[in-house]
Write a structure and sequence with these properties.
mainly beta, outer membrane lipoprotein receptor (LolB), chain A, 13-stranded antiparallel β-sheet, 2 helices, disordered N terminus, disordered C terminus, signal, Outer membrane lipoprotein-sorting protein, TP_0789-like, lipoprotein
């Protein structure tokens, strides 16, 4: 079985064959990670946890290429994922009416944690022209290192490095830098759990580190999720 993790989560592993010994195409690797997020139907509930602060409840509802995050009754956003692009929208009422998500809100921290809206969506996986930079062992696992440059000016991230697990084709670690190359943030998969259908895995714990320019960890936030629930329930969308 291969891991499968949703948006922030499903995108962290792809349902694809293990990567071959020869150097793979970087864009194909990133595309495979993206597309894995469109293959699931499940509900995830959990918390965003930062030491010394109250837990922030978070729910994620996945219906194939549609995902909806609930951070509170009034803070909900929706992602529609295509093959080559994703649209991020905010949900404005109980009928599921949506409007474009404000770009100015992408870098906003959620309840004072290290996690932003930009982090949850992993929208950089849709940036074009990924480049394979080599192979590295990261936290004991053999990985390909892929660089992705921001083609625009929105958000805080100018360049992102993705370490893709050589065996599973999953992202194992991500490090984001600003437009001047300064390290900002690092994402690590810490633990996984089985999907309801038993055919794969989803995220149980994700660590988000804020970084100093010399890569020291200055602050930590955890995303922790309960056992996933599958089912035919629909969320409202316009």
């Amino acid at each position: 079985m291969k891991p499968v993790f949703p948006a922030f989560l499903l995108a962290s592993a792809a349902i694809i064959a293990p990567l071959h010994a020869q150097a793979p195409d970087a864009n194909a690797m990133i595309r495979g990670i993206r597309l894995s997020a469109t293959l699931q139907q499940m509900d995830l509930n959990g918390v965003i946890q930062k030491e010394g602060q109250a837990d922030v409840p978070v729910s994620l509802f996945v219906r194939n290429n549609n995902m909806q995050f609930h951070l509170s009754d009034t803070d909900r956003f929706h992602i529609r994922m295509g093959d080559e692009s994703a649209k991020l929208m905010t949900v404005v009422d109980d009928k599921g009416t949506t409007k474009d998500f404000p770009a100015s809100k992408l870098t906003q921290r959620i309840a004072g944690t290290d996690v932003t809206y930009e982090d949850l969506t992993l929208r950089f996986l849709y940036w074009p022209n990924a480049q394979l930079e080599g192979e590295e062992k990261i936290r004991g696992e053999d990985c390909y290192r892929v660089r992705i440059n921001n083609p625009g000016k929105e958000g805080a991230f100018g360049v992102v490095y993705v370490w893709v697990h050589k065996k599973y084709g999953a992202f194992w670690q991500i490090r984001a830098h600003d437009f001047k190359g300064k390290a900002l943030k690092e994402f690590q998969v810490n633990d996984v759990m089985k999907l309801p259908d038993g055919k794969g895995y989803t995220i149980k714990e994700m660590l988000v580190n804020s970084l100093s320019p010399d890569l020291r960890v200055t602050s930590k936030t955890y995303l922790r999720f309960n056992k996933p629930q599958g089912g035919p329930k629909e969320f409202k969308r316009r």
